[in-house]
Amino acid sequence: MARGIEIRAAHFPGRAPIDTYGNGGFRFADMSHRGSILCLPSGIYGWDMDVSKPLSIDNFRKVLDEAAEIEVLLIGTGNDMRPIPADLKAALKAAGISSDPMNTGAAVRTFNIMLMESRAVAAALIAV
Predict the structure, then answer these.
(1) Are the C-beta atoms of 97 and 63 separated by less than 8 Å?
(2) Confidence band (pLDDT; 50, 70, 90) for 27?
(3) Per-residue pLDDT at 1 exceeds 80
(4) Which of 15, 36, 83, 127 has the smallest number of CB atoms closer than 10 Å to its CB?
(5) pLDDT of the residue at 14
(6) Euclidean distance between CA atoms 53 and 76, whole angstroms
(7) Using 50, 70 and 90 to split pLDDT, how confident is the model at 5?
(8) Chain mean position to CA 41
(9) CB neighbours (10 Å) of residue 86?
(10) Which tens digits make up the pLDDT trace of 64-89?
(11) Three-state DSSP string of the chain
(12) Pairing of strands 31-34, 25-28
């Protein structure tokens, strides 16, 4: 019997630079994703996040789960830069992660450079 359409969480199993961003999504590894993404050591994941949602520990749980392999987390906060709340910054720091908020465009560019340098970098990118 046919199973029908199977919907799975968006995931690219590897590290890749971000080729383009805008129009509500990202292009990377000859693929495109509509919405926000997490670029982690284990891969690139769709992220249920937008500028209306808070930067909270719960929204960064997947990042914290991979903390052992991340030194720097770049947080692309949309078109405008917004600060990281103190509790989230403290949780990231306690996990050994240095965090840096910036607008999404700057975060994409910085992520790509640090990735080319083989740095232990991750990015949480809110779509613009």
Answers:
(1) yes
(2) very high
(3) no
(4) 83
(5) 85
(6) 13
(7) low
(8) 11
(9) 8
(10) 999 999 999 999 999 999 999 999 99
(11) CCCCCCCCCCEECCCCCEEEEECCEEEECCEEEECEEEEECCEEEEECCCCCCCCCCHHHHHHHHCHHHCCEEEEECCCCCCCCCHHHHHHHHHCCCEEEEECHHHHHHHHHHHHHCCCCEEEEECCC
(12) antiparallel
Token couple for 2: 């046919």
CA–CA gap between residue 104 and residue 63 (Å, rounded): 17
Measured CA to CA, the distance from residue 2 to residue 119 in angstroms comes to 45
Nearest residue to 39 (alpha-carbon basis) of 75, 85, 83, 90: 75
Write down the residue that tokens 């690219």 correspond to.
Answer: 12
